[in-house]
Amino acid sequence: MAYSKEKAFTLIELLFVLAIIGVLVTIIFAGLNIARMNNRDAKRLSDIRTIHGALFDYFETNKTFPIASNTCDPANNQFFGLEALVTAGSISVLPRDPAGGANGVCYAYATPTNAGTQFTFHLGASLEGTPSALDNDIDCYSNNPGGTPPNSPCVGGVVPWSGAPLNGDDGGKCDASHFGSHCYDRIPE
Q1: Which of 49, 95, 96, 165 is deepest in the core (most CB within 10 A)?
Q2: In which band, very low, low, confident or very high, does the pLDDT at 141 lie, cut at 50, 70 and 90?
Q3: How many domains does the chain contain in total?
């Protein structure tokens, strides 16, 4: 039996190359997932700034902030009361959490009461990462007492508030339906 003198890769060499390619692909996909997470968080922060501005536009016209409701049902355009911003023309389309998918996820919104004039609000989005924006948010709670220092009740009412009251603690979700794990919250400032 005659052996060929042609050079070829051995099975071990091929497996080694495939293992290296597998490791590189894993590293690349991990980096892409982190980039996607950071992009979703940047969108959430932008959405909160947009909603925050629309709330003040609404207040300027109506001399009250929209009354929060207990309903988050994106299929029926119910977003804890923030849908009033669209109805009043303060914003053309209410932003939705980028990880919400077809059903959507509402940003958390609460007011001190569910009737009358509202002079304050508590607005929040849960972030997946830990961006530096968490250093500049409010960290107050409008849900049941129990926040840890430096958290304190949001000014303007007793807890719990109406709507989707949230614990603005950076170490937890703003709302149970959210995807993130760090609450970025805002009040009128």
Answers
A1: 165
A2: confident
A3: 1
Helix ranges restricted to H, the chain: 11-62, 83-87
Burial of 146 (0-12, 13-18, 19+ CB in 10 A): exposed
Please say whether the beta carbons of 110 and 80 come within 8 A: yes
Q: Is 73 helix (H, G, I), strand (E, B) or coil?
A: strand
Look up tokens 């099975």; give the residue. Answer: 11
Range of the domain at 106: 11-186
Residue owning tokens 């002079």: 119
Question: Computed over its alpha carbons, how large is the radius of gyration of the chain?
Answer: 24
Compute the distance between CA of residue 108 and CA of residue 186 in angstroms, rounded to an integer: 10
H-helix or E-strand spanning residue 126: strand 122-127
The closest alpha carbon to 121, from 49, 44, 50, 189, belongs to 189
Amino acid (1-letter code) at residue 168? G
Question: In 3-state terms, the chain is what percent helix, strand and coil (to 5)?
Answer: 35, 15, 50
186: helix, strand or coil: strand
Say which residue, 184 or 167, is predicted with more confidence. 184
Band of pLDDT at residue 135, cut at 50, 70 and 90 = confident
| Any domain includes 177 | yes
